[in-house]
Amino acid sequence: MESKPKQIGGKREGAGRKPCPNVWVRLPVPREVWAMIEVDAKRNGRTPEAEAARLLERWAAAPLFT
């Protein structure tokens, strides 16, 4: 009968996913705001999701206090 190799202390290496550079979040967005994002996306030739990401990126980079 074969015995399983023992894992001796410490964290396993190489297990799980590699860290992703992006952070995925879910944000509640009012329907009116999403409707405006959809209109802007259509006007700019983007998907609504890409337009929302672009807006979030712009707002995240904006200074907090002016």
In short:
The protein is mainly α and 66 residues long.
Characterize the structure shown.
Residues 1-16 have a biased composition (Basic and acidic residues). Residues 1-21 are annotated as: Disordered. This is CopG family transcriptional regulator. This protein has 66 residues and is mostly helical. The chain has a domain at 31-61. The chain is built from two helices and no strands. Helix 1 (31-44) crosses helix 2 (48-61). The protein is elongated and about 65 Å long.
How large is the share of residues in beta strands?
under 5%
Our count of helices gives 2
Number of separate strands: 0
What Rg, in angstroms, do the CA atoms define? 22 Å
Shape: elongated
The percentage helix is 40-55%
In whole angstroms, the N-to-C terminal distance is 72 Å
The H/E string reads HH
Mean pLDDT: 81
Extract low-pLDDT stretches.
none
Structural class, by secondary structure, is mainly alpha
Based on the model shown, name its key terms.
66 residues
